[in-house]
Structure formats: C-alpha cells, structure tokens
Amino acid sequence: MSSSSSPSVTTDAETLKRNRILSSKLYFDIPIFKLPLIYSPDYDISFLGIEKLHPFDSSKWGRICQFLSSEGFLDKNCIVEPLEASKEDLLVVHSESYLKSLQSSPNVSIIIEVPPVALFPNCLVQRKVLYPFRKQVGGTILAAKLAKERGWAINVGGGFHHCSADEGGGFCAYADISLCIHYAFVQLNISRVMIIDLDAHQGNGHEKDFSSDSRVYILDMFNPGIYPRDYEARRFIDQKSGTTTNEYLKKLDEALEVAGHTFDPELVIYNAGTDILEGDPLGMLKISPDGIAARDEKTFRFARSRNIPIVMLTSGGYMKSSARVIANSVENLSRKGLINMGRSPVKI
Asked: Burial, 5: exposed, middle or buried (Cβ in 10 Å; 0-12, 13-18, 19+)?
C-alpha cells in the first residue's frame, strides 16, 4: 500500500467508527425518576464456584447496591440497567482479531487469571464471564451520557483499566474506559476528557489507547511496585504519583491542583478502585475506609465545583469489605451534597 493512500484508509476507519457509535443502542433516554446510578444483576459473576479462585470479589457489585438499599439511600426501582455491548459496539475500539481471541477459553483464562476456565467450552465462558463484562461495558458507556445530563453518574462496575484495544489482562477483558470516551467524543460533542485513575494498579490499558491523543489527560496514582509494571505505558501518563505512604490524600490534593491548572476537561472519568484499602492483598497500600471516602469526596468536589460531569467506576478491590467501603463512600457523597440520591436516608 502506498503512503498516499494512508489518509484515505484512516478516514474510512474513522467514518466506520463514527457510524458504529451513532448506530449503537447503548445510549438511550432515561426517565427522570431514575438515578444516574447504573447496575444490573447480570454484572455479578457466578461460575460453578470457580470465580472464587481469583481474589476479586465477583459479587461485589450487587452487594454495593444491597448496602445502599438496606440503609435507605437507594430505591432499587430507581437504578438504571444498561444494555450489553454488542460486537459492533466493541469494534469501536477493539480489533476483530482481539475479539476473536476471546472465543478461545484458554485466552480468556489468562486474561481473567483463573487457569481452570481454559477447560470449559467457550459458549459457557461467554455466558458466565464475558457477558457480565459486556453488560458492565454498556454501563460505563451509558454513564457518560447520564453524567452530561445530570452532572454525575456512577456505574457500579466497570473500570477495566488494564485492557487496551488489542490486549486484555488483569481481570479486564474489554476496554470500557476507552470505549466510553470515544462514544462521548461523538455522541456528546465532547472534545476534552480527564481520566483520574486512583486504583492501586496502573491503568496501562487506557494509557496505551490514548498515548498520542491530546484530547485525553491522564492522572494516575498507583503503587509502582505491583502489577502491571508497564513501564512503556507509564510514558503516556500526563501526571503520575506512585505512592506507598500515608501521605496519599496530600498527594491527591497536589495532583488535582496541578491537573486543574493544566487541563480544562469537559468530562471526568474517575476510576475509583478500592484496592488501596489497608490489608488489600494485591494493592498493598494502607489507606483507611475513611481515607477512601475522603479520596472520593475530593475527586467529586474537584469536578462538581468546576461544573464538569463526572463518571465514577468501581474498578478493583480484593477484600470482602470493599463493597461496604464503596457504599459508605457513596453515602458520604450524598450527605455532602456532591450527588443527589433522590431521597433522604431512612434511619434504620
């Protein structure tokens, strides 16, 4: 192929991507009585007990909603249920070859880090593992639309920040953050997005996907001594702060101040992993539950005080207490007036 034909090929690819986005059903109108809080029972993974072989709590998402509901902060009838991301939706970012590779159970077993999955028929792996992931991808994409309309949105799932267009890993099979941003560029007429990734692990997937895209600013605070140790992807972080100290919140204040002066986003994607929690076996940091609530409050205040729509994703967290910690943090955001859960908490 001659170099002179390259611009035409690029234009064709961009047109195809745009058409896929515009024809997608993942954006749909939400009744006003519904909250910008997205969840489906299909998020939760139950696979003959095999899911317990991974330290991630694959029932975390449902338990977050149960905690919020039992304490009067959430009417389950007000939850928004997303659609599953289709193959055409996923092709906006992912290659045909990558999606085809997920038709191999051994490949999926490597991505989700559960070796026995390699032994199961792929139709079962698709239904029990990848379908829940695709529902969460649909939730992340829809969250941007809701955030633009309501000021904030929380997908009680998603945050698969280790997956890039052509490679999955670290329990992340689809690049929901990258997909969400590309949909926002086209459907919401947004041209500047800030990713604030505060999961304990480096967000190497979205860093690769936006390595040469000046429309996306990435603030990533992570523990540099743990997975994925992707030094190549670290070159594409606009601002990084790997920390293993109790000065976490101070570092966050400083990082947000720099980000606010450096970049003027029209949308914030907040990857709010709770694997920074003290005792988490994979995050290996020492942040208290109150510290996580303060972290989330600071991040929401950063966006809300500037009238920037913010999408929150729950991402990683490898302790049973993570669901409780996330629910407590959401309740704190509601009490502080940073989100409106639509009803006063009922005292139990």
From this structure: exposed
Distance CA(344)–CA(331), nearest Å, equals 11
To 10 degrees, what angle do helices 6-23 and 176-187 make?
Answer: 90
Contact 175, 93 (CB under 8 A): yes
Give the DSSP letter of residue 277. Answer: B
Judge whether 313 and 269 are in contact, CB under 8 Å.
Answer: yes
Q: What is the largest CA-CA distance in the chain?
A: 70
Length of the chain: 348
Per-residue pLDDT of the chain (348 residues; tens, 9 = 90+): 444 446 777 789 999 999 999 999 999 999 999 999 999 999 999 876 665 655 667 889 999 999 999 999 999 999 999 999 999 999 999 999 999 999 999 999 999 999 999 999 999 999 999 999 999 999 999 999 999 999 999 999 999 999 999 999 999 999 999 999 999 999 999 999 999 999 999 999 999 999 999 999 999 999 888 888 777 777 766 665 545 446 899 999 999 999 999 999 999 999 999 999 988 888 888 899 999 999 999 999 999 999 999 999 999 998 989 999 999 999 999 999 999 997 543 332
* Active site (catalytic) residues: 162
Distance between CA atoms of residues 307 and 156, nearest Å: 22
Rounded to whole angstroms, how far apart are CA atoms 197 and 207?
A: 10
Contact of 23 with 81, CB cutoff 8 Å: no
Spell out the alpha helix ranges (H) of the chain: 6-23, 60-70, 87-90, 96-101, 105-112, 122-125, 131-150, 176-187, 204-209, 231-234, 248-262, 289-304, 322-335
Give Cα 95 to chain centroid, integer Å. 20
